[in-house]
Design brief:
Elements: E1 2-7, H1 15-24, E2 31-36, H2 39-49, E3 57-58, E4 70-73, H3 89-107, E5 113-116, H4 121-126, H5 134-141, E6 148-153, E7 156-160, H6 167-173, H7 176-192, E8 201-204, H8 219-233, E9 238-242, H9 244-248, E10 258-261, H10 264-275, E11 280-284, E12 289-293, H11 310-323
Parallel strand pairs: 1-2, 1-5, 2-4, 3-4, 5-12, 7-10, 8-9, 8-10
Antiparallel strand pairs: 6-7, 6-11, 11-12
Helix pairs in contact: 1-11, 3-5, 7-8
């Protein structure tokens, strides 16, 4: 039976809440789920949310009870303090340790997909994990140099050339080589994991009106178009560059399998308007399936019991769907 590792995320945010709520409403027959994190934190949130779930604690996947589909994998008995809505190095250490354990299990082929609950980047940094986000940490830990962040909401998929960069740095960060590398990993995963034959990928321009023939910027002509040409020479069915507002404004008419945006908000604003609350963060290019909810730790509502588990449900469902034989 295939196993999904579900990292607990920041224990002070809504990650444990949406995790427990999602697992409580899902049925697992062909897969099993291991929540990676401290049992004490899981029990705290179960009590806080009044969720009666029998979640046995194990320290080794070989000890998995036969009659349970969901367990807590906790190798440490260190004391844990949950401080709802607070930024703490302890929470960052726990979140980072869960990711490290998930990666170890993935390298050992003991888990077949990783679903990550939200983390707080500042907490990770305070704990010594100096990465822009979970994606980069996972990529390095799994020995992957070529990857792409891709948000998925039903059939709408948006991948990003640049991710968490200040807007003023984007123009200097994009290059023909980088765009081509992103197109390669997106095309590879659409074909191999999403099982789409000859996927069509639309590439957005950087500037308004895709540069207006050079009047509003030359990146489309000097960087983006050459990347598309090279991709097509390699057999990647990519088109563009398109004016982003027109491209995303006609989703109902487009027949593209994925979109490649130049920067974070260019791609994620239309994606979240289309599927907010049910979108999934998927990492293309990793040697293992990785999904995550499309939201953060939401410290402002942590502990109030009002966080929606929908995106976590969708993240788990997508991981299970990609694992299932088709």
């Amino acid at each position: 039976m295939k196993t999904i590792a579900l990292t607990i995320g920041d224990i002070n945010g809504i990650g444990p809440e949406v995790t427990l709520k999602a697992l409580a409403q899902m049925e697992w027959r062909e897969f099993r789920v291991a929540i990676i994190g401290p049992m004490a934190a899981v029990q705290f949130w179960q009590k806080q949310l009044r969720l009666e779930m029998a979640l046995p604690r194990i320290t080794d996947l070989n000890d998995w009870p036969r009659d349970k589909s969901v367990v807590v994998l906790d190798e440490t008995s260190l004391p844990v303090t949950v401080q709802m809505g607070e930024l703490t190095p302890e929470a960052g250490k726990i979140a980072g340790a869960a990711l490290q354990k998930a990666m170890q299990l993935a390298r050992e082929n003991k888990v077949h997909a990783i679903v990550t609950a939200p983390v707080n980047k500042h907490a990770l940094h305070l704990a010594g994990f100096r990465y822009p986000g979970q994606t980069e940490l996972l990529a390095e830990g799994l020995g992957c140099t070529e990857f792409a962040m891709m948000l998925v909401a039903n059939g709408f998929r948006v991948a990003l050339v640049t991710t968490h960069l200040p807007l003023r740095q984007v123009a200097n960060a994009i290059s023909t080589d980088l765009i081509l590398r992103r197109l390669r990993v997106v095309q590879m995963d659409l074909t191999a994991r999403f099982e789409i034959d000859a996927p069509r990928i639309a590439v957005a321009g950087l500037n308004p009106h895709a540069g207006e023939g050079g009047l509003l910027g030359e990146e489309e002509q000097t960087i983006i178009a050459p990347a598309i040409r090279r991709a097509r020479e390699e057999g990647i069915n990519s088109e563009g560059p398109f004016s982003a507002d027109a491209l995303f404004g006609q989703l109902d008419k487009n027949r593209f399998d994925a979109y490649l945006a130049m920067y974070h908000d260019q791609g994620l604003i239309p994606l979240k308007m289309f599927g907010f609350g049910r979108a999934v963060n998927y990492t293309a290019g990793l040697p293992i399936i990785r999904t995550s909810p499309d939201h953060g730790t939401a410290f402002d509502i942590a502990g109030k019991g009002i966080a929606s588990p929908t995106s976590m449900v969708e993240a788990l469902r997508l991981a299970a769907h990609l694992l299932a034989p088709h």
